[in-house]
Design a protein that fits this description.
Helices cover 47% and strands 13% of the residues. The chain is an alpha/beta fold. It has a seven-stranded mixed β-sheet with strand order 2-1-6-7-5-4-3, with helices on one face. The structure holds zinc ion (ZN). Zinc ion (ZN) binds next to strand 1, helix 2 and helix 3.
Length: 276
């Protein structure tokens, strides 16, 4: 059976989408401890304390309800398996197995909505749309949160307003077609570029939903027809989107200030934000 793995790295939040013919097997190791919750099978490979399982279960069920309500017209094929792995690494989603994985040393409950969004939509569309809706859902459900990758310190609209101020915004034409959403703390210009596409995908999704409504966004998701669905050329849509974010966030933080609020290490982003 064909399987797709969607991976994003904590703390470096790189994202990888890989599809192949081999299903991803659980790691070899001690017998995992299994926990049942109404909508999840939790596979604890790390042997964490019961209190961790309790808070994890509570967060999973709460976000299952909230994310599921957002994706009401989508149907999950089955109960979700949540694998809690030993060590640290990247939360990832294995769509073909309807599973999501996180790591005991870097357990990130704030990532659950993002991961669940990928399981609900099954990652069937272009990355700009899939990542855009996952980032949007996180912002929608946790509007006060400023510590969620890939937007750190300020929301995607504010970041795009900063790109606009610095003349470093990626065009909608380019961002929409971007294939590379993988980035890491290696901090190359490619890493920074991939991060910026993530930000723009989230901001664009919010703009479409705020402007045209949720149903129109899902029409775009299904049709992949940007101009036909939203009624304008790519350049016209880009102009309206960027104007909205500039007007909404005239006093956005600088890159260093935004990252400083969350003690972030992603300083390599700042040269990209300045268009360097
Ligand atoms: Zn993602």
């Amino acid at each position: 059976m064909r399987s797709c793995v969607v991976r994003f790295v904590v703390p470096s939040i790189a994202l990888l989408v890989a599809c192949g013919s081999e299903p991803v097997a659980l790691d070899e190791g001690p017998e995992p401890i299994l926990y049942d919750t109404p909508n999840f099978l939790i596979v604890d490979e790390a042997g964490v304390p019961a209190a961790v399982i309790d808070s994890l279960s509570e967060a999973l069920e709460m976000e299952w309800e909230r994310v599921g309500a957002f994706f009401a017209e989508f149907i999950l094929p089955d109960r979700i398996t949540f694998i809690l792995r030993a060590g640290d690494g990247s939360p990832f989603v294995t769509v073909g197995e309807n599973s999501m994985s996180q790591w005991a040393s870097t357990l990130a409950l704030n990532y659950i909505p993002h991961q669940l969004a990928h399981l609900w939509t099954r990652y069937t569309r272009r990355p700009f749309l899939e990542e855009g809706i996952a980032v949007y859902v996180t912002e929608f459900l946790m509007p006060e949160n400023r510590d969620v990758h890939p937007y750190r310190g300020q929301v995607p609209h504010a970041w795009v307003a900063l790109f606009e101020l610095n003349g470093s915004t990626l065009s909608l034409f380019s961002a929409y077609r971007a294939r590379n959403f993988v980035f890491s703390f290696a901090g190359s210009s490619q890493d920074a570029l991939a991060w910026q596409v993530f930000i723009e995908a989230g901001s664009f999704t919010r703009w479409v939903i705020d402007t045209f409504g949720r149903d129109v966004w899902f029409e775009l998701f299904r049709s992949d027809d940007l101009g036909g669905t939203l009624g304008g050329s790519t350049a016209e849509l880009e102009d309206a989107w960027f104007r909205t974010v500039r007007e909404a966030y005239p006093n956005q933080l600088s890159c260093e200030e935004a990252l400083g609020t969350v003690g972030s290490r992603e300083v390599f982003w700042c040269s990209r934000a300045r268009g360097q």
